[in-house]
Amino acid sequence: MRVIIFGAGGIGGAVGGHLARVGHDVVLIARPGHVxxxxxxxxxxxxxxxxxxLHVPAVEGPEKISxxxxxxxxxxxxxxxxxxxxxxxxxxxxDVPVFCFQNGxxxxxxxxxxxxxxxxxxxxxxxxxxxxxxxxxxxxxPGWLTMGCYPSGTDSLLETVAGGLRSAGFLVKVSPDVMRxxxxxxxxxxxxxxxxxxxxxxxxxxxxxxxTQKEMEGLLAKAGIAWISDEDQAKEWPETVxxxxxxxxLKVKDSTWQSLARRQGTVESDFLNGEVVRLARRLxxxxxxxxxxxxxxxxxxxxxxxxxxYTPAELAALLxxxxxx
Length: 325
Known about the structure:
Elements (H helix, E strand, L loop, with lengths): L1 E5 L3 H12 L3 E5 L2 H10 L1 E4 L4 E4 L3 E2 L11 E5 L6 H9 L7 E4 L5 H6 L5 E8 L1 E5 L2 E4 L1 E2 L2 E7 L6 H12 L3 E4 L3 H12 L2 H7 L3 H22 L6 H7 L9 E2 L7 H7 L7 H14 L5 H15 L9 H8 L6
Parallel strand pairs: 1-2, 1-6, 2-5, 3-10, 6-7, 7-8, 12-13
Antiparallel strand pairs: 3-4, 8-12, 9-10, 11-14
Helix pairs in contact: 7-10, 7-12, 11-12
């Protein structure tokens, strides 16, 4: 099995780096500057216990790869890039399994339009990509993953892929109902925009996060969408709450924060908070808090503004939230 990492940033670089570290065949697809740095000097993978320099081949697009029957694609690009990534991939191969290592719940459906073998992956990896040629994986174990066929089910390939990831140190669970886990992760991820807009710690923005998540949870209940909370996941899978063997404490925050910090011009908020807005629309109602977060974060991205434009109080006022909300 050869693993093609499509989007070798914080998540993709961490997954690809750890797989390469233990001898798996890996190819990275990334942005030009990142590709040049990796090919010139190797991928620098920073972990709590050690820093590795890994000589992994990197290319700028799938057209540079000759695909074979043993290839699998790990799609690690942010949601706003999924459709373009699939167009590029479809131009060079008609049939390859695609695993969506992404936040949100819409990517799998987009992938399945082009490739019938689509898989969902709920990702909990603290990856950081700010400098070309370097990725930091802040935890040991490096992360935990729940994966399954889309829209449901399991197969033998899942077990093969899970085994490879486990050999690289990841905790992996195969589930026939993976989207329930991805909806649960989305309940957490709608907070990304709050951290990115304020650059504040959890204590100072907790009341905003609670309002954001409460709005989403109410819509999920109304729509009858099943999701799994962190508390329920911990009961199912106790290993995910065991003490870490190691951890790097950095000021860097989530993937949306990193996109703003790199001034990339786009963020994935429409695939996170925007999903809540679309769900509200389907139910004939509104999600003003999540809609406001999409609008503000996308505006900051377009203007290439750095994280922390608003204080918690300013953001709360813009969203119509009070501490008693």
